[in-house]
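Bench notes, bay 3.
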Amino acid sequence: MSEHSLDARRLLCPMPVIRTQNKVNELLNGDTLVVTCTDPGVINDIPAWCRINGHEIIGTEQNDDDIIIKIKVKH
């Protein structure tokens, strides 16, 4: 299991979710993905996408303009 990152800053909805989906599809069960975004909509959109697709949100934090969401991949 390994940790991966995705820079989705300066992308507007729905692109952060689409990029997250594309990256998760490349990862293995148990991997983690750290997504960094600036669109405040991801605070709701990415967790909703994870619930629908069975992935787990490990944590969410905000640093200045960056929103960081950590996802555990479950295939």
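Next record in the batch:
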Amino acid sequence: MNLAMPRLSDTMEEGTLGRWLKHEGESIEKGEVIAEIQTDKANMELEAFQGGVLQRILVQEGETVAIGETIAVIGDGSEPSGEAPAEQPRAQENAKPPAQENVQPDGQQERRPERARQAAEAAPARSGPEGRIKASPLARRIAQEHDIDLATVKGTGPNGRITRDDVEQAKSAAPQEQPAEAPAGEPQPTKAAAGEVQPFTRVQSIVARRMVESKTQAPHIYVSLDIDMAKASSLREEVNALGGQKVSVNDLVIKACAAALRAYPKANASFAENGIRHNAEVNVGFAVSQEDGLIVPVVRDADQKSLRRIAMETRDLISKARENRLSGQDITGGTFTVSNLGMYGIDEFQAIINQPECAILAVGAVAQKPVVQNNQIVIGHRMRVTLSADHRVLYGVDAAEFLREVQRLLEEPLNLGF
């Protein structure tokens, strides 16, 4: 059976083979993770669709191929070992003459990203037990950057899987080498010196492209207002004091947005070529920063879940995002996004719409501010929010009504349901 590059996200057009976890000739079981794939959103695990033997690997680590292209061949184990050579050019799989194995029909050399080719050529050959060490993609990358042998790291993750924290701990325990000629007191050089161009990572390139596409294709409009968070803050403190899953301000916002989206389904819609797509599910994504960009995990059916359930899911998704363990189910299907910079003390900002969604909510910090109540100046707890909306789907009145509903729910938080 030919194993093809799968579509692991709704916007994925190609994938990069990050790492093979199985070697040619090894037996695999259905559902077993056999490779790590870098998509346009995250590093993801590829599970075998059927059991058998990994007969032939056609795409090497670091190579980028289109969705549907064959990356490996899985056999039933009955093939003679001589029929499964260690490496076969992908062109032979397509029955091209040997002289044309790296040439496209138009006579141009087969395209392969330069950095991916260099990474593949520079990567040390792995075989035997070392190649089967269980570790997250982020843990592997950190270990490679700091020349840490994963065989010496003890994994604390599920089934002994090595996590980022395990590698960071190993890095801290390792003796730090100081340059012999570095004068005392002078700053050490960073990875990218001043004036030097640091190449984009794959994630950074994709995020940059998608942001430009959204900003140039979707006509953005912005509406802002202040939300009185006094009752919500007080109620959150009471709920967290009871023990159990802690609830954050962002969890409150996600729950309020989910309820408002159900009440105003137009804000839950998407722009399509032939009209407006009305989504049946309310799936709220929230932005999570990573070392080389950001990612948007999704709380599915958020309007049907309690606040504590949402809090539990967001913690799990954040943990998985930090360790590059998000699955396709975790990052696809979003219908609305929340971007919160309040934890950095930011009062107000405007976010770019995460297409194909039609709106995103930018959330600022909850801060004490002087406000007027009953003709008197008092100290209030206010949070500034700004809705960015696709004017092709939401008009100004639509955006304002939706945002007023979010405000009403957060100012009367007992309606959210804990």
